[in-house]
Recover the amino acids of this structure.
């Protein structure tokens, strides 16, 4: 038995449909929206509409952008011969935060995941292959997540790119900086020992 | 340094401005909105606009409604002589869930809280007094939250209503059903002993 007006119920339902938002939180958020001044609530609605209308994928790297090319692909000072492949736009932000990379990106928008019915043709792999085929790419760095699906996707792509004679590398595995040996898991430690480097 | 398109940044900002939603969660929600089909994303935006336009306070009990009177005030079978006073619309839902109450409600939309600069004139107290003065109310049940502010508000209102000769009661304090004595706090146990009842 619901005693909220239907427009409010609808709003609660919408919030509850978001990932990680339960019914109670959805209620709290909907009440918060009702408590906002009209202009602010409407600007929230506008933000959704605008984001949906204006945000699309960069024609080259598939990163999110509001123009034909993303800011990174428009930046001539960045090395076109180096492509870092990430599974989603958040990966771009993470790598950019390191200030260590001055190449371009390629955003796959997913990873190969048979469990979720995602095959190689469902993510932006062919666009990557076309880029490597068409331009002077020297190295492709695979920076998918270090989990099974990310790993599988990286291996699949590296096999696809082999015929083009491009160097395909992968981010190093190892113990995180500032972490503690004690808390490193076995697989990470194994990789850290395998990948040990000379001082 | 942000590499998200500005429309996406705006949407993330909007989500992050909601209570209890941090930056990371806001990002996740904004990406989820982008991943939705156009129609669903726009219906989310519409839900906000609609809720803001259509939801208002019931002319009698101040509960949220999309018409002049709320469903409870329109229901003739409910006892007009009994008013349950709650601090917000969620209180109405809570009491309704008990299926124990067949009177009307009065929603204060807040509690007296000097710390937050909320005085008696900032919440819907005068509307309650007007209701009690104008109609045949026999009993007013105070069901504000059992905390200092809820208690203060309840006491303030009961003093205001005394001249009208109406009976003012309060929800019983005590140990929660299904709870464990061991985990009951001292104040609750004290109230439970004070309010003990004969078998």
């Amino acid at each position: 038995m619901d005693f909220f007006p239907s427009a409010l119920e609808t709003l609660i339902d919408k919030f509850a449909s978001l990932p990680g938002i339960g019914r109670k939180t959805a209620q709290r958020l909907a009440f918060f929206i009702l408590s906002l001044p009209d202009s602010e609530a409407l600007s929230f609605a506008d933000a959704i509409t605008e984001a949906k209308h204006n945000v699309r994928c960069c024609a080259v790297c598939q990163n999110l952008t509001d123009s034909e090319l993303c800011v990174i692909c428009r930046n001539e000072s960045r090395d076109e011969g180096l492509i870092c492949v990430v599974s989603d736009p958040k990966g771009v932000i993470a790598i950019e935060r390191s200030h260590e990379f001055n190449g371009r990106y390629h955003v796959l928008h997913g990873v190969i995941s048979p469990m979720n019915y995602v095959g190689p043709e469902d993510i932006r792999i062919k666009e990557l292959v076309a880029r490597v085929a068409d331009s002077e790419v020297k190295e492709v760095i695979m920076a998918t997540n270090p989990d099974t699906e990310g790993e599988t996707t990286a291996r699949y792509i590296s096999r696809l790119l082999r015929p083009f004679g491009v160097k395909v590398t992968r981010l190093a595995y190892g113990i995180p900086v500032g972490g503690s040996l004690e808390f490193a898991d076995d697989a990470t430690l194994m990789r850290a020992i395998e990948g040990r480097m000379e001082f």
Observations:
- Helices of chain A lie at 6-16, 23-35, 38-54, 71-74, 89-97, 125-134, 148-161, 186-194.
- The longest strand of chain A covers residues 79-86.
- The CA atoms of residues 8 and 31 of chain A lie 8 Å apart.
- The first helix of chain A runs from residue 6 to 16.
